[in-house]
Amino acid sequence: MKRRTLIAATAATAATAALAAAPLARGRAAAPATVHWWYHFDNPRASPAALVAAFEAANPGIRIMAESIPWGGGADYDNRLYTALVSGGGPDCAMVKLENLGRLMEMQALEDLGPMIDAWSGKADINPDIWRINTAPTGVRYYLPVQYVMLYLYVRRDWLDAAHLAPPASFPEFLHAAQAMTAKGHWGFGLRGASGGQDFWATFVLGGGAKLAKGGLVTPAAIAADAWFIDLFRKWKVCPPSAPTDGFLQTINNMKAGVTGMTIHHIGSANALVAALGDRITAVPVPRGPQGTGWATFGDGSNAIFAGSRNKEAAWRWLSFLSTAKNNVAFNLLTGQVTVTTSGAAHWTAEPKRFVEATLASLPLAHVFPAVPATAEFVSTVWPQMTQKALLGEITPAAMMQSFEKLYFG
Amino acid sequence: MRSAAAGRPASAPHAPLLAIPSARALTPWALLAPALVATSAVVFLPVLVTLWMSLHRFVLFEPRTTPFVGLANYASVIADPTFWASLARSLVWIVGGVSLQFSLGFAAALLLNRRFAWRGLARALIVIPWALPSVIIGLIWTWMLDFNLGVINTLLVRLDLFAHPIAWLAQPDTAMIAVILALTWQGFPFFAVTLLAGLQGIPREHYEAASIDGAGAFGAFRHVTLPGLAPVMATALLLRMIWVANSLDLIFIMTGGGPGTATETLPLYAFLKAWTGLDYGYGSALAVMLTLLLLAVVAIYTLRDSG
Asked: Which A residues in the span 339-398 are in contact with B, Cβ-Cβ below 8 Å?
């Protein structure tokens, strides 16, 4: 009897406690979910505060903690992200790039967004080519595209006119134009030999016969394409002598200062170049290789949700908000890149039309480096070191390509 | 002066081993505690973590597989030709950078020790390069040395000293010279200020005695100034050598270790391995090797000093 009384009393106490706790639990559920989102904008003064405010007004149950993370050439951002994820203190979601996809997959850090993307009304407003490029090699969709750029060729229109040449569409035409523009004190092509220049290399070497597949970097055609690329500097001397260590600032400033006649970059530089050169600067897709193939690097920008997040649904609502129509246009006005939405692109006025047209015309040539862990090291260290050595004649183009083959395929 | 032990009566009982220390005995520890805690947190703990990582295969993007590998990372370092090449470049960087800084700093200190108009202003201005962050100095020199737009090339060409501009940072034989020049500009004020303080500590009577003994300017410099400054010089050289050996920011900003690997010193190699290659195990082993090499230099200095 005593035992029954004790059980009854315990049950009654538990029931009372549960009832008493119910309002607290409801209160907790009603508390805003906080989504930690890491981002980087090239312009540090650009702030997503207005987008955050608009989202929070439409989603009172969700609070966005947007944290600007220093870029540091990419390595700072990536390392902070990896370290935070490994230590368990990472954000719920963050801006990411395809060159990190291999490492993030290796870490099993990413959430599969496929089911959420399929159920999302904004899916059809994003170009199928952009979806294709942002899908992992395994077919899983970890990334939600939010911005993009296409690498294309900036050309001094007035220099071409003076030489009675059309914008180059093939490699021989490119070399001919570069030679015609090279004279005392200025050069036809502003080659970027420092980190980031792999996009220049890819245009001429991966677009010229090499393949990022086992054995594909050391075929005779691949080595010949690389030798042709190196000869732009060594044999034909159509690049400034500083090219081996020239980075983004040097190549763009040389264009602005009238030192070089062509270089490769994306629409993010268009307004600065127009401010310096006006109508004398234009852009065209990069030249195609001997077989008519071509490689224009797709400069991606996406958002991802991390597997360790406890606010995945709220994070998805925020990320899908950023990739939707006018929100995505507003976002890209902050980042200086191009909207991924078809509806937004139709009314894009942030840059002169000729640069938007060059971007869209480059999409059929769009490629990215493979989403494997080696890509990040290739981009940051191996490519610049080996290319600089080849440009300076310390190693042969064949040795350069063998080092890349070894990195990617062992 | 009698020692405490000598003053203790022979028949006095020994103090118990676990006796509670007096408040007076604890006071120094209490005062030192915050500094000890802070030093442990920001120095000793990271050092221990670095040692731990150097004994493991620790690749940041493979967090589930960090096996203990013993000294395998160190064996790989010894067999790594890039390690030896970067060590050799480090020696050039240290010897070149520190000797130039020392020479320029010593000359500046001798000059600033003389009386002349606006000496106070000159003493204040000379500290500016030392006060600037390395990143700023790296960017300043990168643009001054720029092939197309840099002021140095413009001056050299306009003064007809060179027919064409020079790509200082893009050629292996000039890149190391260029970064050492930037380092010299940054570091010579340290020697100037330190040696100036040393010069002012040499009693004037020593110079008067040397003069009475017939010493000229060079004799006074050799027999009074140099011996008087020797301890300061040794300490300043040791400190600066360690700082320069560890520093990588200037090179990272100006060349990133290039062209190729022409300016890749040992700390930069370790940094790139860990920071961009994400191989923290190997990068830690490289860092520990550098620390051991520097400790050997410190040990020689300490032994010489105590001897």
From this structure: 373, 376-377, 380-381, 384-386, 388-389, 391-392, 394
